[in-house]
Amino acid sequence: MPLQSKLLSHTLAFYIESLLPVQQPKDFSIPDKVLKSIYDKVVSEESIEFKGNKRQIRSTIIAQIKSGGRIDGKKIALAAKNKGFEWHLFERCVFLCEQNGLDNASFRYTHPPAMLSFDKKDDLSTLTVSEIKSILKASGHKMTGNREELLDRLWQFLPIKDTEHVLKLKHDKNLSAYEDKQLALKYESLARFILHRTYFVMQIIRQLTNSN
Description:
Blueprint: H1 3-18, H2 32-45, E1 49-50, H3 54-67, H4 73-79, E2 85-86, H5 88-99, H6 121-124, H7 129-138, H8 147-156, H9 163-211
Antiparallel strand pairs: 1-2
Helix pairs in contact: 1-5, 2-9, 3-4, 4-9, 7-8
């Protein structure tokens, strides 16, 4: 294995490990100054570039970590007004997972929906019964029968007016849902990464305090 791949594999292993949930003890508290300092340090070291409101993102992530509850990537993305951010470590890890066939839960939304076409009947199966009937009705075809019969009729009379438009709307909707999930996952991963770092810094602080 090339040196670069080895280094990236070690980075990936460390990163995935850092995404594991941290069980906070009941007496585990995080001073605001420490948490904010670690947040800023991580953002700086990782060269993270936010496209959304930096202050709002920062305050939302910090509030979620301090609450001790579940990290909610959707709420963080909402605070960022669904704007993304550049994080090269995350992108490299996603690439390595895909390249090596690793099915890690942290990257479960890495495959965008394929563009639908008229080349395969299977593509039409993504349409709902009401969508199929709507297309058939607009073209003057019968709308009776079960789902399979409707699909057969639609396939038989292709190309039918409005079919391409409906399929494109369906694809755009699926793509939008994919992008929303991916963005929420990315923000969740960042918050967990910061939580992981904070947890171990606090452990060191507590040990040093107890030893003195």
